[in-house]
Write a structure and sequence with these properties.
This protein has about 325 residues and is of the alpha/beta class. About 45% of the residues lie in helices and about 15% in strands.
């Protein structure tokens, strides 16, 4: 099983749309067994993948074990919960889902407080920080666990990124996305240094490594790649080129990406997973139908030129899925 977080410090870059449609492409087109873990308190992936009545049933029915419930025994200092959160199927996406929970935002305080304990090498801190890694480690029946996250660089997202094998970064060509890459690089460097120091303190105090599923934890996050939202462009001699307003941002963004790739010791050309076109006309229909964009049909409100957009979306997402698998399995 391979776990992958989808993350950017900037919102509005199509992260959840990318994750859900890529998950569907992996499941439907590549025949992979996929689970989406919604670690965003806003629950956007859950709302996209599941019909409204099903999501309400899950969030309001006390018989479901939410992702937030997994933290409760940790908060009380009694270890990890014996049961995993409830898994539900998304019929049209062809994937399974661990639904998000708005109460996860409250766990931010617990995770932030216990990160200080982690940095001191204390077992309680490590147990809280690595709760999501413990959970993901119990999902070995899947080929891929894809984790949706909010855009912050707070304690919850740090815990999610420390829990996964890889992360994918959706990008747009704008100044805020450019600044986000710099923020991510700075935060990752600080987290890596803090964790390495904490692991030394833990080993010295406890006489051994902190283990999750029998494996010592360490900084081992890898960069799977980035996906770019298509920018406004013109054609010159048949070649698509950025308009002048974007040229400087693209140049600077490439520099930031080069620094990020250097941090993860990967070649930049290997982590370019592709582009996603502007699909604004069909994304709302996809959300309303709780279905992948590339599987929309007449019953979902697709008419006329929408069919071209649906086919185009399929071509893009399937190509990204193919590159994604090749990158992960390289």
């Amino acid at each position: 099983m391979i776990s992958v977080a989808f993350f950017n410090n900037k919102g509005g870059v199509g992260k959840t749309t990318l994750l859900c449609n890529l998950a569907a492409s992996l499941a439907v087109n590549e025949k992979k067994k996929v689970l989406v873990l919604d670690a965003d308190p806003q629950c956007n992936a859950s709302a996209y993948l599941l019909p409204e009545n099903k999501l309400e049933e899950i969030l309001l029915d006390g018989t479901y074990n939410s992702i937030d419930s997994f933290y409760e025994p940790v908060r009380r200092g009694v270890g990890y919960a014996p049961e995993i959160p409830t898994i539900v199927p998304s019929a049209r996406f062809g994937v399974d889902v661990i639904v998000g929970d708005p109460k996860l935002s409250i766990r931010e305080d617990l995770l932030a407080t216990d990160w200080a304990a982690t940095r001191n090498g204390e077992p309680r801190g490590f147990q809280t920080t690595y709760a999501l890694k413990e959970l993901i480690g119990r999902l070995g029946q899947y080929d891929f666990v894809l984790v949706d996250m909010g855009p912050s660089l707070g304690a919850l997202n740090r815990s999610a990124l420390l829990a996964v094998d890889y992360f994918v970064m959706p990008l747009s060509v704008d100044i805020f996305s450019l600044m986000a890459v710099a923020n991510i690089l700075s935060s990752f460097g600080n987290w890596k240094n803090s964790l390495n120091s904490a692991l030394e303190r833990y080993k010295e105090a406890e006489g051994g490594d902190f283990l999750i599923n029998g494996v010592p934890v360490k900084w081992d996050l890898k960069f799977a790649g980035f996906v770019m939202q298509q920018y406004t462009a013109k054609k010159k001699e048949g070649v698509r080129q950025a308009v002048e307003a974007f040229e400087n941002i693209i140049h600077r963004q490439n520099d930031e990406l080069a620094s990020l790739c250097a941090f993860f010791d990967v070649q930049q050309d290997l982590v370019n997973l592709g582009e996603v076109p502007t699909l604004s006309s069909v994304v709302p229909l996809s959300q309303q139908a709780h279905a992948p964009i590339f599987s929309l049909g007449a019953k979902d409100g697709i008419v006329g030129s929408h069919y071209n957009r649906v086919q185009e979306a399929g071509n893009f997402y399937h190509a990204i899925a193919s590159k994604f698998i090749a990158r992960i399995e390289a």
